[in-house]
Amino acid sequence: MATTSPQSGDSLLTALISGCTAAAVSGTLTYPLDFIKTQQQLNNHAYMNKWNIPGNYPGSIAQLYRGCSALVIGSVIKNATRLISYNWSSKFMAIDTYDSQGNSKTKTSPPRIVIAGAMSAFIETLWLIPFENIKIVMIQNQTLQNEITRSEKAKIPFDITGGRIKHHHQRRLSPGNLFTKQYISPHAYFSSELLAQYNGKHHSKFSHSASHNKLDALISKYNKNPTLTYLGTIKEMYQMKGVGAFTAGTFITFTRQMAISWVWLSTYNATRQLIDPHNSEQSWFGHKHTAIQSIGLHVLSSIAVIGFTQPLDVIKSHIQSKNGKAIYKDSLSTAYRLFVEQGPRSLFKGALPRGLKVLVSGGLTAAIYSYVEDIVNVAGGQTVFAS
User: Fold this and answer.
1) pLDDT tens digit sequence for 11-43
2) Which positions does the entry assign to Solcar repeats (predicted)?
3) Are 36 and 386 in contact (CB under 8 A)?
4) How many domains does the chain have?
Protein backbone atom coordinates (compact mmCIF):
# COMPACT_ATOMS: atom_id res chain seq x y z
CA MET A 1 0.00 0.00 0.00
CA ALA A 2 1.34 3.42 -0.96
CA THR A 3 2.30 5.77 1.84
CA THR A 4 3.20 9.43 1.91
CA SER A 5 6.70 10.25 3.05
CA PRO A 6 6.96 12.45 6.11
CA GLN A 7 7.83 16.09 5.65
CA SER A 8 11.03 17.34 7.19
CA GLY A 9 11.60 20.76 8.68
CA ASP A 10 9.66 23.01 11.03
CA SER A 11 5.89 22.97 11.24
CA LEU A 12 4.14 26.04 9.82
CA LEU A 13 3.11 27.14 13.34
CA THR A 14 6.69 26.87 14.62
CA ALA A 15 8.01 28.78 11.62
CA LEU A 16 5.37 31.50 12.04
CA ILE A 17 6.06 32.03 15.74
CA SER A 18 9.84 31.92 15.33
CA GLY A 19 9.93 33.98 12.14
CA CYS A 20 7.57 36.71 13.31
CA THR A 21 9.27 36.98 16.71
CA ALA A 22 12.70 37.17 15.09
CA ALA A 23 11.50 39.86 12.67
CA ALA A 24 9.95 41.94 15.48
CA VAL A 25 12.96 41.73 17.83
CA SER A 26 15.55 42.26 15.08
CA GLY A 27 13.60 45.18 13.63
CA THR A 28 13.28 46.80 17.05
CA LEU A 29 16.97 46.43 17.96
CA THR A 30 18.22 47.80 14.62
CA TYR A 31 15.55 50.47 14.14
CA PRO A 32 17.72 53.45 15.23
CA LEU A 33 19.90 52.75 12.16
CA ASP A 34 16.76 52.87 10.01
CA PHE A 35 15.70 56.19 11.54
CA ILE A 36 19.14 57.76 10.97
CA LYS A 37 19.26 56.42 7.40
CA THR A 38 15.89 57.90 6.46
CA GLN A 39 16.64 61.23 8.10
CA GLN A 40 19.98 61.51 6.28
CA GLN A 41 18.34 60.70 2.96
CA LEU A 42 15.65 63.37 3.29
CA ASN A 43 17.78 66.12 4.87
CA ASN A 44 19.46 68.79 2.74
CA HIS A 45 22.43 69.73 4.90
CA ALA A 46 23.83 72.33 2.49
CA TYR A 47 20.47 74.13 2.46
CA MET A 48 20.27 73.96 6.28
CA ASN A 49 23.81 75.29 6.72
CA LYS A 50 23.10 78.18 4.36
CA TRP A 51 20.46 79.51 6.76
CA ASN A 52 22.20 78.39 9.97
CA ILE A 53 19.39 76.01 10.89
CA PRO A 54 20.06 74.02 14.09
CA GLY A 55 20.39 70.27 13.59
CA ASN A 56 17.27 68.14 13.56
CA TYR A 57 18.96 65.04 14.96
CA PRO A 58 17.03 62.99 17.58
CA GLY A 59 17.25 64.40 21.09
CA SER A 60 16.51 61.17 22.95
CA ILE A 61 16.29 57.39 22.60
CA ALA A 62 12.50 57.67 22.36
CA GLN A 63 12.82 59.96 19.34
CA LEU A 64 15.18 57.47 17.67
CA TYR A 65 12.36 54.92 17.83
CA ARG A 66 9.73 57.15 16.22
CA GLY A 67 8.18 55.06 13.45
CA CYS A 68 9.40 51.77 14.91
CA SER A 69 5.81 50.61 15.46
CA ALA A 70 5.08 50.87 11.73
CA LEU A 71 8.22 48.95 10.82
CA VAL A 72 7.65 46.17 13.37
CA ILE A 73 3.98 45.69 12.46
CA GLY A 74 4.89 45.67 8.79
CA SER A 75 7.77 43.22 9.36
CA VAL A 76 5.58 40.79 11.31
CA ILE A 77 2.81 40.85 8.70
CA LYS A 78 5.35 40.59 5.89
CA ASN A 79 7.08 37.56 7.40
CA ALA A 80 3.81 35.82 8.22
CA THR A 81 2.60 36.46 4.68
CA ARG A 82 5.88 35.17 3.25
CA LEU A 83 5.70 31.88 5.16
CA ILE A 84 2.01 31.27 4.55
CA SER A 85 2.08 32.21 0.86
CA TYR A 86 5.29 30.25 0.19
CA ASN A 87 3.93 27.20 2.00
CA TRP A 88 0.67 27.37 0.04
CA SER A 89 2.22 28.09 -3.37
CA SER A 90 4.92 25.41 -3.05
CA LYS A 91 2.29 22.81 -2.10
CA PHE A 92 -0.06 24.02 -4.83
CA MET A 93 2.62 23.49 -7.48
CA ALA A 94 3.94 20.22 -6.04
CA ILE A 95 3.53 17.02 -8.06
CA ASP A 96 2.97 13.46 -6.89
CA THR A 97 5.68 10.95 -7.80
CA TYR A 98 6.25 7.30 -6.99
CA ASP A 99 9.46 5.50 -6.07
CA SER A 100 10.48 2.01 -7.22
CA GLN A 101 8.46 0.45 -4.40
CA GLY A 102 5.27 2.28 -5.35
CA ASN A 103 5.34 4.69 -2.41
CA SER A 104 3.77 8.09 -3.06
CA LYS A 105 5.99 11.15 -2.65
CA THR A 106 5.14 14.80 -2.99
CA LYS A 107 7.92 16.66 -4.76
CA THR A 108 8.48 20.24 -5.87
CA SER A 109 10.99 20.81 -8.67
CA PRO A 110 13.63 23.62 -8.43
CA PRO A 111 11.90 25.81 -11.07
CA ARG A 112 8.62 25.52 -9.15
CA ILE A 113 10.42 26.48 -5.92
CA VAL A 114 11.74 29.62 -7.64
CA ILE A 115 8.22 30.48 -8.85
CA ALA A 116 6.80 29.90 -5.36
CA GLY A 117 9.47 32.18 -3.89
CA ALA A 118 8.70 34.88 -6.47
CA MET A 119 4.99 34.66 -5.69
CA SER A 120 5.54 35.00 -1.94
CA ALA A 121 8.01 37.87 -2.49
CA PHE A 122 5.43 39.72 -4.59
CA ILE A 123 2.72 39.35 -1.93
CA GLU A 124 4.98 40.31 0.99
CA THR A 125 6.19 43.43 -0.85
CA LEU A 126 2.58 44.57 -1.25
CA TRP A 127 2.28 44.48 2.55
CA LEU A 128 5.57 46.29 2.99
CA ILE A 129 4.66 49.42 0.99
CA PRO A 130 1.93 50.95 3.25
CA PHE A 131 4.00 50.52 6.41
CA GLU A 132 7.08 52.02 4.73
CA ASN A 133 5.02 55.12 3.90
CA ILE A 134 3.75 55.39 7.48
CA LYS A 135 7.27 54.95 8.88
CA ILE A 136 8.74 57.69 6.70
CA VAL A 137 6.00 60.21 7.59
CA MET A 138 6.45 59.46 11.31
CA ILE A 139 10.21 60.07 10.98
CA GLN A 140 9.56 63.31 9.11
CA ASN A 141 7.09 64.46 11.75
CA GLN A 142 9.63 63.90 14.53
CA THR A 143 12.33 65.64 12.47
CA LEU A 144 10.05 68.61 11.77
CA GLN A 145 9.15 68.88 15.47
CA ASN A 146 12.86 69.03 16.33
CA GLU A 147 13.47 71.73 13.70
CA ILE A 148 10.59 73.85 14.98
CA THR A 149 11.67 73.54 18.63
CA ARG A 150 15.33 74.30 17.98
CA SER A 151 14.57 77.13 15.53
CA GLU A 152 12.42 78.81 18.18
CA LYS A 153 15.19 78.44 20.77
CA ALA A 154 17.71 79.83 18.28
CA LYS A 155 15.28 82.67 17.51
CA ILE A 156 15.26 82.03 13.75
CA PRO A 157 13.42 85.09 12.33
CA PHE A 158 11.13 83.17 9.93
CA ASP A 159 8.69 80.27 9.82
CA ILE A 160 10.60 77.20 8.59
CA THR A 161 7.33 75.62 7.38
CA GLY A 162 6.57 78.55 5.06
CA GLY A 163 3.33 79.20 6.89
CA ARG A 164 3.67 82.98 6.77
CA ILE A 165 3.78 83.13 3.02
CA LYS A 166 0.40 84.87 2.76
CA HIS A 167 1.59 87.68 5.03
CA HIS A 168 4.90 88.48 3.33
CA HIS A 169 3.58 90.88 0.71
CA GLN A 170 0.29 91.91 -0.77
CA ARG A 171 1.60 91.16 -4.25
CA ARG A 172 2.17 87.62 -5.47
CA LEU A 173 5.66 86.29 -4.89
CA SER A 174 7.69 85.35 -7.93
CA PRO A 175 8.44 81.62 -8.55
CA GLY A 176 10.97 80.25 -6.12
CA ASN A 177 11.07 83.53 -4.23
CA LEU A 178 10.45 82.26 -0.71
CA PHE A 179 12.81 79.28 -1.09
CA THR A 180 15.63 81.69 -1.96
CA LYS A 181 14.79 84.06 0.89
CA GLN A 182 14.53 81.60 3.76
CA TYR A 183 14.77 77.95 4.77
CA ILE A 184 11.68 75.83 4.09
CA SER A 185 11.87 72.45 5.79
CA PRO A 186 11.54 69.45 3.41
CA HIS A 187 9.83 67.67 6.31
CA ALA A 188 6.87 70.07 6.27
CA TYR A 189 3.90 69.82 3.91
CA PHE A 190 4.16 72.40 1.11
CA SER A 191 1.08 74.55 0.60
CA SER A 192 -0.33 75.05 -2.91
CA GLU A 193 1.53 78.36 -3.16
CA LEU A 194 4.81 76.81 -2.03
CA LEU A 195 4.44 73.89 -4.46
CA ALA A 196 3.92 76.33 -7.32
CA GLN A 197 7.05 78.24 -6.34
CA TYR A 198 9.11 75.08 -5.78
CA ASN A 199 8.24 73.80 -9.25
CA GLY A 200 8.96 77.19 -10.80
CA LYS A 201 5.38 77.82 -11.83
CA HIS A 202 2.93 80.65 -11.34
CA HIS A 203 0.34 80.08 -8.65
CA SER A 204 -2.71 78.42 -10.18
CA LYS A 205 -5.90 80.44 -10.45
CA PHE A 206 -7.68 77.48 -8.84
CA SER A 207 -5.48 77.61 -5.73
CA HIS A 208 -8.02 79.69 -3.84
CA SER A 209 -10.85 77.22 -4.44
CA ALA A 210 -12.66 75.65 -1.48
CA SER A 211 -10.79 72.33 -1.84
CA HIS A 212 -7.40 74.04 -1.92
CA ASN A 213 -8.26 76.27 1.03
CA LYS A 214 -9.37 73.20 3.02
CA LEU A 215 -6.17 71.35 2.16
CA ASP A 216 -4.00 74.35 3.01
CA ALA A 217 -5.79 74.60 6.37
CA LEU A 218 -4.89 70.95 7.09
CA ILE A 219 -1.31 71.63 5.97
CA SER A 220 -1.05 74.55 8.38
CA LYS A 221 -2.51 72.42 11.17
CA TYR A 222 -0.14 69.49 10.75
CA ASN A 223 2.90 71.70 10.12
CA LYS A 224 2.37 73.54 13.39
CA ASN A 225 1.67 70.36 15.37
CA PRO A 226 3.28 67.31 13.70
CA THR A 227 1.60 64.02 14.62
CA LEU A 228 3.86 61.75 16.66
CA THR A 229 1.66 58.68 17.17
CA TYR A 230 1.08 55.67 14.92
CA LEU A 231 -2.70 55.91 14.62
CA GLY A 232 -2.57 59.70 14.46
CA THR A 233 -0.15 59.51 11.53
CA ILE A 234 -2.45 57.13 9.66
CA LYS A 235 -5.32 59.60 10.15
CA GLU A 236 -3.11 62.50 9.04
CA MET A 237 -1.97 60.71 5.88
CA TYR A 238 -5.51 59.76 4.91
CA GLN A 239 -6.78 63.30 5.43
CA MET A 240 -3.94 64.75 3.39
CA LYS A 241 -3.75 62.33 0.46
CA GLY A 242 -6.40 59.66 0.82
CA VAL A 243 -5.62 56.01 0.07
CA GLY A 244 -2.83 57.10 -2.27
CA ALA A 245 -0.76 58.11 0.76
CA PHE A 246 -0.22 54.42 1.54
CA THR A 247 0.61 53.25 -2.00
CA ALA A 248 3.30 55.78 -2.93
CA GLY A 249 6.53 54.26 -4.20
CA THR A 250 5.01 50.94 -5.29
CA PHE A 251 7.08 50.55 -8.46
CA ILE A 252 10.40 51.64 -6.93
CA THR A 253 9.85 49.38 -3.90
CA PHE A 254 9.34 46.34 -6.13
CA THR A 255 12.40 47.33 -8.15
CA ARG A 256 14.52 47.68 -5.02
CA GLN A 257 13.41 44.33 -3.59
CA MET A 258 14.18 42.52 -6.85
CA ALA A 259 17.55 44.26 -7.12
CA ILE A 260 18.46 43.29 -3.55
CA SER A 261 17.74 39.61 -4.23
CA TRP A 262 19.57 39.60 -7.56
CA VAL A 263 22.67 41.42 -6.30
CA TRP A 264 22.87 39.36 -3.11
CA LEU A 265 22.56 35.97 -4.80
CA SER A 266 24.87 36.91 -7.68
CA THR A 267 27.60 38.27 -5.40
CA TYR A 268 27.29 35.39 -2.95
CA ASN A 269 27.50 32.75 -5.70
CA ALA A 270 30.40 34.44 -7.54
CA THR A 271 32.42 34.92 -4.35
CA ARG A 272 31.75 31.37 -3.24
CA GLN A 273 33.06 30.02 -6.54
CA LEU A 274 36.21 32.12 -6.15
CA ILE A 275 36.80 30.62 -2.71
CA ASP A 276 36.38 27.05 -3.96
CA PRO A 277 36.62 27.02 -7.79
CA HIS A 278 37.35 23.26 -8.00
CA ASN A 279 34.25 22.12 -6.17
CA SER A 280 32.15 20.14 -8.61
CA GLU A 281 28.98 20.63 -6.56
CA GLN A 282 27.93 24.21 -7.13
CA SER A 283 24.58 23.83 -5.37
CA TRP A 284 23.41 26.55 -2.99
CA PHE A 285 23.50 24.43 0.14
CA GLY A 286 26.20 21.87 -0.71
CA HIS A 287 29.22 23.94 0.26
CA LYS A 288 31.09 23.69 3.54
CA HIS A 289 32.68 26.96 4.63
CA THR A 290 34.68 27.98 7.65
CA ALA A 291 33.24 30.61 9.98
CA ILE A 292 35.58 33.26 8.55
CA GLN A 293 34.59 32.37 4.98
CA SER A 294 30.88 32.51 5.86
CA ILE A 295 31.30 35.92 7.50
CA GLY A 296 33.31 37.14 4.51
CA LEU A 297 30.63 35.99 2.07
CA HIS A 298 27.97 37.76 4.11
CA VAL A 299 29.97 41.01 4.39
CA LEU A 300 30.87 41.15 0.69
CA SER A 301 27.31 40.40 -0.37
CA SER A 302 26.01 43.10 1.99
CA ILE A 303 28.47 45.69 0.63
CA ALA A 304 27.44 44.83 -2.93
CA VAL A 305 23.76 45.18 -2.04
CA ILE A 306 24.31 48.63 -0.51
CA GLY A 307 26.52 49.80 -3.38
CA PHE A 308 24.07 48.83 -6.10
CA THR A 309 20.71 49.47 -4.44
CA GLN A 310 21.34 52.55 -2.27
CA PRO A 311 20.23 54.99 -5.00
CA LEU A 312 16.99 53.02 -5.32
CA ASP A 313 16.45 53.25 -1.56
CA VAL A 314 17.09 57.01 -1.59
CA ILE A 315 14.66 57.53 -4.48
CA LYS A 316 12.04 55.42 -2.67
CA SER A 317 12.35 57.53 0.49
CA HIS A 318 11.87 60.78 -1.44
CA ILE A 319 8.87 59.48 -3.39
CA GLN A 320 7.26 58.27 -0.15
CA SER A 321 7.97 61.52 1.69
CA LYS A 322 5.27 64.05 2.54
CA ASN A 323 5.66 66.06 -0.67
CA GLY A 324 6.89 63.17 -2.81
CA LYS A 325 3.96 62.80 -5.20
CA ALA A 326 3.54 66.56 -5.50
CA ILE A 327 7.20 67.23 -6.33
CA TYR A 328 8.40 64.15 -8.20
CA LYS A 329 6.76 62.64 -11.28
CA ASP A 330 8.48 59.24 -11.33
CA SER A 331 11.65 57.43 -10.24
CA LEU A 332 13.84 58.68 -13.10
CA SER A 333 12.83 62.32 -12.65
CA THR A 334 13.45 61.96 -8.90
CA ALA A 335 16.97 60.66 -9.51
CA TYR A 336 17.65 63.43 -12.02
CA ARG A 337 16.37 66.16 -9.72
CA LEU A 338 18.41 64.91 -6.75
CA PHE A 339 21.52 64.63 -8.94
CA VAL A 340 21.14 68.17 -10.31
CA GLU A 341 20.03 69.93 -7.12
CA GLN A 342 22.12 68.13 -4.46
CA GLY A 343 24.87 66.39 -6.43
CA PRO A 344 25.68 62.70 -7.08
CA ARG A 345 26.50 62.04 -3.42
CA SER A 346 22.85 62.64 -2.53
CA LEU A 347 21.98 59.30 -4.16
CA PHE A 348 24.12 57.50 -1.58
CA LYS A 349 22.94 59.29 1.57
CA GLY A 350 22.31 56.96 4.48
CA ALA A 351 24.53 54.22 3.05
CA LEU A 352 26.52 53.72 6.28
CA PRO A 353 23.59 53.18 8.71
CA ARG A 354 21.78 51.05 6.12
CA GLY A 355 24.92 48.98 5.55
CA LEU A 356 25.34 48.42 9.28
CA LYS A 357 21.71 47.33 9.55
CA VAL A 358 22.05 44.86 6.68
CA LEU A 359 25.23 43.41 8.21
CA VAL A 360 23.73 43.01 11.68
CA SER A 361 20.12 42.08 10.95
CA GLY A 362 20.83 38.90 9.00
CA GLY A 363 22.82 37.17 11.74
CA LEU A 364 20.64 38.64 14.48
CA THR A 365 17.43 37.38 12.87
CA ALA A 366 18.90 33.89 12.39
CA ALA A 367 20.07 33.73 16.02
CA ILE A 368 16.70 34.87 17.41
CA TYR A 369 14.83 32.49 15.11
CA SER A 370 16.91 29.54 16.31
CA TYR A 371 16.44 30.51 19.97
CA VAL A 372 12.65 30.93 19.69
CA GLU A 373 12.39 27.77 17.62
CA ASP A 374 14.01 25.75 20.42
CA ILE A 375 11.59 27.23 22.97
CA VAL A 376 8.56 26.48 20.78
CA ASN A 377 9.72 22.92 20.15
CA VAL A 378 10.28 22.28 23.86
CA ALA A 379 6.93 23.84 24.77
CA GLY A 380 5.23 21.84 22.04
CA GLY A 381 6.35 18.60 23.66
CA GLN A 382 4.89 19.49 27.05
CA THR A 383 1.50 18.32 28.29
CA VAL A 384 -0.56 20.48 30.65
CA PHE A 385 -3.22 19.33 33.12
CA ALA A 386 -2.16 15.70 32.63
CA SER A 387 -3.38 13.28 35.30
Assistant:
1) 778 888 888 999 899 999 999 999 999 999 999
2) 10-92, 288-375
3) no
4) 1
